[in-house]
Amino acid sequence: MLVKILEADPDFVQALKNQTGMNTASKAYAHAADRYQHLRVQLSDKEYEIEALEAEVEQLKAALKEVYESSLKVVDILGKKPK
Fold it and tell me: What is the DSSP letter of 21?
């Protein structure tokens, strides 16, 4: 199938050729199109992973806050005991 790209920025085309390792613009575009679905799935997986890690960070922050508040109570109790 022939696809003609009429207006392509030469800098973009060169960058695409460099990224794909292809010597011609048509091969670079075809390679990029061929990889699109795989890369889209990878991106989706990474977005899910980031969301899970962000949730874990929030849980750890909450746990650290509880530990900190508990440690303040312990320090307060120890400070009130006679020596």
Answer: T
Give 38-68 as a DSSP string.
HHHHHHHHHHHHHHHHHHHHHHHHHHHHHHH
Residue 5 banded pLDDT, cuts 50, 70, 90:
confident
Which contacts (CB < 8 Å, 24+ apart) does range 27-34 have? 29/3, 29/5
| C-alpha closest to that of 13 among 3, 2, 28 | 28
In sequence order, what are the residues at sequence separation of 6 or more whose Cβ sits closer than 8 angstroms to the Cβ of residue 40?
none
pLDDT digits (tens, 9 = 90+) for 33-73: 999 999 999 999 999 999 999 999 999 999 999 999 999 99
Residues 14, 29 contacting (CB under 8 angstroms): no
Is the per-residue pLDDT at 82 higher than 70? no
The residue extents of the domains of the chain are: 10-80
